[in-house]
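Dear Dr. H.,

I hope your travels went smoothly. While you were away I took the liberty of generating a structure for the chain from your last submission, since the lab meeting agenda had it listed for discussion. I wanted you to have the full record in hand beforehand rather than looking at slides cold. The sequence, exactly as received, is reproduced here:
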Amino acid sequence: MSVKAFELVPAVEWEQLTAEKARAAVECIECCGEHLYVCTSDCVLHHFLLEARTTAKGRHTYRTQKLLQKVLNSKKPAAELKAASALDRLVVLCDAAISLVDMLTLEAVPSGGAKLRGVTAFSVNENPVTGDAFCVEMAVVSARRRAVHICTVHEDRVQVLKEVVTPEQPCALAMDGYFLCLALPMQYMILNYSTGVSQDLFPYNSQERKPIVKRIGREEFLLAAPGGLGMFANAEGISQRAPVSWSEGVLAAAVCFPYVVALDEGFVTVHSMLDQQLKQTLSFREGHVLQDFEGKVLLASTKAVFVLVPLPLETQIQDLLASRRVEEALVLTEGAQRNIPKDKFQMLHKRILQQAGFIQFGQLQFSEAKEHFRRGQLDVRELISLYPLLLPASSSFTRCQPPLHEFADLSQLAQGDPEKVERCKHFLIGYLREARAGEAANGFREDVDTALLKLYAEAGHDSLLDLLASENACLLADSAPWLEKHHRYFALGILYHYNGQDAVALQLWVRVVNGDLCDPTCTNLFQYIVDFLSRCPNLDLVWKYADWALQKDQKIGVQIFTKRPISKELLNADDVITYLQKHHRALLLYLEHLVLERKVQREKYHTHLAVLYADQVLGLLSRPADTREHLASARTKLQHLLRESSLYRVQLLLGKLQDSELLLVERAILHGKLDEHDTALHILVHQLRDTTAAEDYCTWASAARGHAHRRRLYHHLLGRYLDPDMPGGPRAVEAVDLLNRHSEVFDAVQVLKLLPEAWSLGLLHPFLCGALRASVHACRTTQVALGLARAENLQLHRDRLKYRGGPILMSEKKGCHLCHNTFRDPECMCLPGGTPVHTHCAAQKLQDTPIKRRLDRTHTSNHT
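The corresponding predicted structure, in token form, is as follows:
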């Protein structure tokens, strides 16, 4: 694809080169700074001064001033010129001889040692290795031998340093450092003249086409290859760039990075070294010279000299962007990095990436646009500003100048298409979310968060609440009207809360719950308000809205008090209970919270809750039978509290339930709390006639009071079953079942004394077997324990006799095993094994040793 990379500007006209009667053709040219040297076919060397100018319209022109001309002392025109500016000399190849000419006077240097004959071509070393600033290195192709001569050019002489033999006589060459790139008659090769190592490149028939060998950089060359290709090769013979495809008839080539310029019979072609594409074609007739001089490309026909002026890089890139060729613009920008100062390149690269992002954004290529925005570190407000009203009114942002895009706003970009608008908004939401998570929003967080809030509110996005619930910088003055406009009252309340205006937030939410305002996004706002009040540190607001919440729903409203975290400022429980007197159900739930959940150990709370439970049960008893399930649930709660709590006033509850013949279980529990077990069992056995309840009572009443108390209760229960004076007489079946199920609890001897003599052994078989098994088990366990105790005692006697067996020898030189000090008196104690220690050391060890049983076995003896 074409791009205007160069302008062809005339530099020297034909009239400036020749007289009116003699028309000579341009043979070769050389440029050094502003000095241009042209040799024509009439053996005249011309010296011009080129002055670059720019017109008011920005066009490039050259003003040429002819300084001097000189006829060469030769019958043939010069074939090649090369300036050695450090020496003020021109190296001239003319009639197979190299001579030196003064750059200013064009006078030939006296030929004492300043002429080298038998030369077909030469190349100056742009990467010299000698280190001498006052000489120029070059390689010369010998016309008589298959060799290349390495020479140095001085002010007054040309000195041959070395002869390098080649397989065949080269047709053309280029030199860089120690490396020679040679075009032989049938192939190209790389030769290191220092080491003699050579590398064949590829075949090329120089008789069919003129070979081209061009140094384009450090240890890198451009070669004309078969098939109309321009090949790149480095000093190792490796091509690190893809070839460019030019015409078969290329006459000359030059490099002006990042472009390769080629000249053929009718055109000048420009290819990119970055993507190898043809970028520009210029019509040019009779061209035969093309060379680059220090970044300046000169082109000559037989009649005139032209300059190929490269357009500024930014102009080329902007032209590519204007034609929507984003990838080419980026390739050109990144490829030109080495020719631009680092700071300037970074600024240019970022801007091009941003422009590329907006181009692809306009084409709805959102993933590519996002990547370019990210790499270009786009000020996200540039993107937000495309969306009307998203930026806060207080924002100080102004768009970049010159502008990064051509869009006025999103409407112009989408051209009125609602689907495109929605897609663009969806993209912006995702981009802003990523910007918030990274560092792209640093410094203007308010603008980003406010814009994101507006987009969420407009789209009804679920993430609106997440944004407001997290740390954010949304501006209240801009956000509140927008949320009201889109009926996002719940989110607006959260925003008020985030800005410390809890009273306004609660007032707004209450209006929504009451139906004065409609917010379709929130379905359970009442529960949220209750949870909010339960965490609210402002107690005035809590008391203000608690009554409203309790009137709406006592079960949920009381959570204002029951869900309040312990870490928050606690409400006085007595104040809450007093406040809840007119809300019976809420009061009950709050007392349950205090007693059952928080385990508050205060008699009045337990008694109050038990009284409320009792009143609830008594109230349900007086209602129709359809409340049976409610009654069962209420009795279960009452019974649980009566059993588990020990803080309520038992007599008060007993007096309240004494007259109810339907609450026998509850009365029995209360009697049990007073240790009136006979009365309790009498109620359960003879009035309620519920043996299961009686047995459960015995288990509950003895749960924390040991096995003896449990046995006593079960014996009481058995006595109730066997009492002949009770109405209905003894209850033999229940007594037998009790004995058989709980045989391990009873004292078999006492039971046998209570049982009637008429009962058969078969009836009591399970009880007797269990009692016998328990008795045998206890007997055997006792025998085992007794045997272990005897064995331990025997071991202790053995140890004692062992350690009393022989004398312990003492002396003033013998030391204590524990403190390592010597004995001053014969009083001592012995450790196991007969080791003597001080008595106070042994006592200290006894106190410090954690294993007491082992010390109990340690025997101590006194010896004198």
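Two observations you may find useful: The first strand starts at residue 6 and ends at 12. The first helix runs from residue 313 to 322.

With kind regards,
E. W.
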